[in-house]
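[audit] Reproducing an earlier prediction to check determinism. Same input, same settings, fresh worker. If the tokens differ from the archived copy the diff job will pick it up downstream; this log only records the rerun itself.
[audit] input (781 residues):
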Amino acid sequence: MDNIQAFLRCKKRRVHLLGVCGVGMAGLAFLLKKKGFEVTGCDLAPNRLAPWLAKHGIPVAAGHDPAHVLKADLLIRTGAVAENNAELCAARRAGKKIFRRGLVLAAISAGTTSICVSGAHGKTTTAAMIAQILRQAGFDPSFCIGGEVPVLGGVAGHGKGNHIVLEADESDGTLAFYRPRLSVITNVDFDHAEHFRDFSALQRCFAAAAGRTRGKIIYCSDDPASRKMFRRAQNAVSCGFSAGANLRLRRWKAAPRGFAVRLETDGKKSGELNLPVPGRHNALNAAMACAAGLELGVPFAVISRALAGFQPAARRFERIIETKKLLILSDYAHHPAEISALVKTARALKRKRLLAVFQPHRYSRTKTLGRLFPPAFRGIDQLILCPVYAASEEKMPGGTSWDLYEKFRQYGKTPTFCASSLKQAWDYLKAGFRPGDGILIIGAGDVVKIAEWAGNEFAGRKTAVFRAQLKSARKKPDVGTWQRNIAKFPAGRLKSSVVKFREPLAQKTTLRVGGSADIFIEADDLTDLALTAGWAAENRVPLRMLGAGSNTLVSDLGARGIVARLKGVFWRKIRLEKNNEITAGAGTSLGKLTDWAAKHGLAGAEFLAGIPGTIGGAVRMNAGAFGREIGGIISRVKIMEPAGNVKTLLRNRLGFAYRRCAGLENRIVLEATLKLTRGNPDVIRKKMDQIRRRKNWMKGMRSAGSVFKNPVGGPAGRVLERLGLKGRKIGGAKISEQHANIITTGKNALASDVLALIEIARDLAGIKRGIDLEREIEYFE
């Protein structure tokens, strides 16, 4: 700490902050600038804090470049910056000083009347309350808080007084280096497994911080760990609903947008607090903020007035949209205890349904606290689970969203689906909400984007347009950038095809799982298909073709856009051409094709016997078995371009490769011509029977065949078997005990069960074997 103090005494020096758009780093950058330093920063993904920093004279560069550190005398970093970061390496080579953020903030607060707020949950809200109390009292404090507080002017502020309110982060252990006038410890709950080996290590950090406190330790007596640690400390002040608390809360009463509670100090009535934020957890935060104010000599009446007008930080039960028809809330909660408090508070709003989208934060937290998450969501009617926000961590087995999903399925009390991206989650919620719903957007990562999308989508709309969206919420989809176009699909112009909105797709696949298509079309002729393709291209609506569904997994969240299937005899015709060639319509099953070829004494397609699916799908994915691929016997393929025009491509223009055909991407197969040879029908049938018998063990199974393509060096099934994945089960899906590259589904299976098994298997192959498994199954989302 001495070398940091010495540096801070030299005001005309240049400081560079890595990851400056992190909320804590941005606040520190601001305070350093106010102290007279020349401050620069960079961030891998500059966010909305970049303009705020620039406004205060702190330039922000995008990305990490060693050139950024050339003129800097000092670098400041967070744990989110990897040790091999290019700027860190360059600074080390140049012999420049590198300090951790928490240590610099602790040094800045030395010699001030500092109020350090720490704890697993509630510290941002509590710090914001204290800063607003001190402002109301005329103290003009400085502050650095881990959230954007609009009424305070941002994440940090520089006041003329000697008081400073700091959110002291325990995540990297630097909490133990502060010497505050007051320590406010909201709770002690295990977190930050990336730094602390166990709960005891975390407790020692809090104990060290309490031991360095110059004045009072203010803690929550309702928190068992805090009570055990601090109740015997002579300089401790307890707050809570529990009997014996120095500042005791009584008669808590929920109000439409907040609460009222009576406060007693050492058994004597102090008065009533009325806050415009909901939840008993916020009553506890207010009690500790009140205790801090009283310790600093602020009259209770001033405290009460400040809290009555309290404005929270962004993403603390933040109402993005609030109407009778729809409520969308955004919240920073990412620990099970925080989520539990959030859900309980949201349930009190009595919406018809309460939906949630959750982005877990850090692999280490997800792995360590995984079993605690499912109970925290009790009361949610439907949960969408998004991929983990890594926060610079490397992926680890047991710590992914797929591993967490498995725990939700084991818990079984909250209907949970997996999303592969934030965009997919938002498109699903936007397409499927019903009037009266409440939607929670939960997490500490970039899940905030969904809140931004929601605000842009609905908040700026004219009332009439918004009403129209609500009215159509159960009927036609409203998703993606093409949302206003899809409801205008000209179904009436199709001559004989069937068009259905929100059509379930599960029974149209061999896995029998998954959600619905926004629009499902059974195209009966070429004209209808051309009209559909042309309209989809013109209106930028996704269009996907579904064959027999034998190699397809449809997301539980549905398939956005149009899903089309070729139906009718027009697409199943087979005709004999010259020179032993046959042409088959894209809707022809491989079983019918091989039987027809055998009947006509044409050999060369026998290896396709027993493969489910149609010609269209087989050609597009270059299906094969026993060392043969359909691309090897293709002569030409008639296709439809996205605009609806038809052309024929010769084999040499198709670009066949292992389980793919580059020339058919974004094109629809109409028919394929195969080059065969003459043979004896009986010999051909006998060979086909032998091939089919080898696959008899799969009869009756609900599967999609091989899950992964074979990697270089051997079969995918062997890789998965060596990882011990045979028989692994999640929900109603199971990795086959006979063949590890096959996943089967049972009656109660979900598509998310299958997807979780796929992604867990792929992650383990990559982490433990260094093998990148590529999915063979098509995923519709």
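[audit] rerun output stored. Observation attached for the diff report: Confidence is low (pLDDT under 50) at residues 462-480.
[audit] end
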